[in-house]
Design goal:
five-stranded mixed sheet, alpha+beta, about 45% strand, about 230 residues, about 15% helix, 3 helices
Length: about 230
């Protein structure tokens, strides 16, 4: 009958590891329990693919946490976070609750309070719309001349973005075409501008702008913008 283990070294290592775990746990229990306030980043996950968030997203949420003093002293905000799940959300304004289950903290740290306890967000369905292009002209032609007709080729652009914001638009503009000091027609290839960061120009990304320079009567100096 064999009474000794086949691998005494492994047994000793297991006992040593158990002692170290017990000692670390005992230290945590004996250490002073403290509290700390910190700001942590907000992450939004599972945003519906056919929607976009049009309201301001808070960069931080304030947490009040409790735990052993040494852990709180070494606690870095990058080790924490608030995750809000938008799965299944519909269009419109809604307050999303921020609960302890939404907070990521290291082991041994407890979340006592969260501020704000709700995050208001507005979601809009993505839409597409074709809009006229209004070329932007800057500068003043040579003396006695002014800006006549302005045309872009193509004349319209397809945009995608929040549908309500798209419906409110009348047109889109281009990067400026400078006619300062010119005495004849001007042509330039310029980019079509997105009206705001939530909208994207699908096509065309650039257009050919043609600007006629015509004779004017009297003192009509001053830039004409289109």
């Amino acid at each position: 009958m064999r009474l000794l283990p086949r691998s005494p070294v492994n047994v000793l290592l297991a006992v040593l590891l158990a002692c170290l775990v017990w000692y670390a746990s005992a230290l945590d229990r004996r250490e002073r329990i403290s509290e700390r306030q910190l700001d942590t980043a907000v992450t939004l996950v599972n945003v519906p693919p056919d929607m976009v968030i049009t309201s301001e997203v808070p960069r931080f949420v304030s947490l009040r946490v409790r735990g052993p003093l040494s852990r709180l002293r070494s606690l870095d905000p990058v080790q924490t976070g608030v995750v809000i799940d938008l799965r299944g959300s519909g269009e419109g304004q809604r307050d999303f609750p921020v609960e302890t289950r939404n907070v990521v903290v290291p082991p041994g740290v407890e979340v006592l309070a969260i501020s704000p306890s709700q995050v208001p967000l507005r979601l809009e369905l993505l839409g597409r719309r074709r809009l006229p292009i209004r070329a932007r002209v800057v500068g003043q032609p040579a003396a006695g001349l002014g800006v006549g007709s302005v045309a872009s080729d193509p004349a319209t652009a397809m945009l995608t973005g929040p549908r309500f914001q798209l419906e409110a638009l009348q047109s889109v503009t281009t990067e400026p075409v400078n006619v300062d000091g010119t005495d004849g027609p001007v042509e330039a290839q310029v980019a079509v501008r997105s009206p705001n960061p939530l909208m994207r120009v699908v096509e065309p990304l650039t257009v050919r702008v043609s600007v006629d320079i015509v004779a004017v009567r009297g003192d009509t100096r001053g830039t004409k913008h289109r």
